[in-house]
């Protein structure tokens, strides 16, 4: 009977293969742990930090104004309409330049938080800052005001953007808003109540028409308006965890209450 003889070269090659496989396994485990930590950071930590900072900024604004606001009831039952949510100015409003009484007169500084957005149905209450920069506005959990669009209460379109996922994700559930739901914008001068009117479930990220003075989608012209009015626009990314398309919610000014 012949006994197989294994040479030293074969043993070395086998040992080398085992070391390579072991090293690859360790590398894969390490990469997996790092990726898991990155996911935890993005999904959990950034939300925690941004929500904390946004709530602190809301309290700071309320302190400056001297009268903390509280979200009203959800849905169309909030208050009685003066103007009926038809896009026309509410009866208490008097024209002053291009905006109604109580609107923000001066353009806020870039990245300055100057208003509070409240959406009672979603339990949402976040600062509004000038601009839509990621690092200095959106990643802080704020709603960002599109430069060049109108300010709260002014004729035209008050357009906002917000993250749908991570960094506080303030606009994550705006797809749940329905016609008749209320959206409030509080400034140092007044509280403006808008009524949700319609939703555009998906459009191109380059669809600038949705934030126009008379908001109307250029990609999907069946969605939007044809007449001037007092509008609010909320935009965010869709589907979730992507930035491929935009989800849009529109509303019309119903009432204005001076502070």
Computed over alpha carbons, the radius of gyration is 26 Å
Q: Beta fraction of the residues?
A: 25-35%
Number of domains: 1
How much is the average pLDDT?
A: 83
Main beta-sheet annotation: 8 strands, mixed, barrel
| CATH topology-level fold name | Sortase, Chain: A
Would you report the number of β strands? Answer: 10
Summarize the topology:
Blueprint: H1 8-65, E1 95-96, E2 99-100, E3 113-119, E4 124-130, E5 143-145, E6 156-161, E7 182-186, E8 190-204, E9 230-238, E10 245-258
Structure description:
This protein has a single domain (41-258), classed as Sortase (Sortase, Chain: A), CATH 2.40.260.10. It has an eight-stranded mixed β-barrel with strand order 3-4-5-6-9-10-8-7. The protein has a two-stranded antiparallel ribbon with strand order 1-2. It has 259 residues and is an alpha+beta fold. It has one helix and ten strands. The model is unreliable at 68-99 (pLDDT under 50). The chain has one helix at 8-65, and strands at 95-96, 99-100, 113-119, 124-130, 143-145, 156-161, 182-186, 190-204, 230-238, 245-258.
């Amino acid at each position: 009977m012949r006994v197989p003889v294994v040479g030293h070269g074969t043993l070395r090659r086998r040992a080398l293969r085992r070391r390579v496989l072991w090293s690859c396994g360790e590398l894969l485990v390490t990469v997996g742990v790092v990726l898991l930590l990155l996911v935890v950071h993005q999904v959990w930590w950034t939300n925690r930090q941004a929500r904390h900072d946004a709530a602190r900024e809301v309290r700071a604004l309320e302190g400056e104004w001297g009268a903390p606001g509280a979200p009203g009831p959800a849905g169309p039952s909030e208050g009685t309409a003066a103007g009926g949510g038809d896009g026309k100015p509410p009866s208490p409003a008097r024209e002053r330049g291009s905006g109604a009484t109580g609107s923000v007169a001066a353009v806020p500084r870039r990245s300055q938080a100057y208003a509070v957005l409240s959406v009672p149905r979603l339990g949402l209450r976040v600062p509004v800052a000038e601009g839509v920069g990621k690092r200095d506005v959106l990643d802080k959990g704020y709603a960002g005001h599109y430069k060049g669009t109108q300010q709260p209460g002014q004729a035209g379109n008050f357009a906002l953007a917000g993250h749908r996922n991570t960094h506080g994700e303030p606009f994550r559930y705006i797809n749940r808003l329905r016609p008749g739901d209320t959206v409030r914008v509080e400034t140092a001068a007044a509280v403006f109540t808008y009524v949700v009117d319609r939703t555009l479930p998906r459009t191109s990220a380059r669809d600038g028409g949705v934030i126009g003075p008379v908001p109307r989608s250029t990609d999907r012209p069946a969605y939007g308006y044809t007449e001037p009015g007092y509008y609010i626009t909320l935009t965010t990314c869709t589907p979730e965890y992507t930035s491929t398309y935009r989800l849009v919610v529109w509303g019309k000014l119903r009432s204005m209450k001076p502070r």
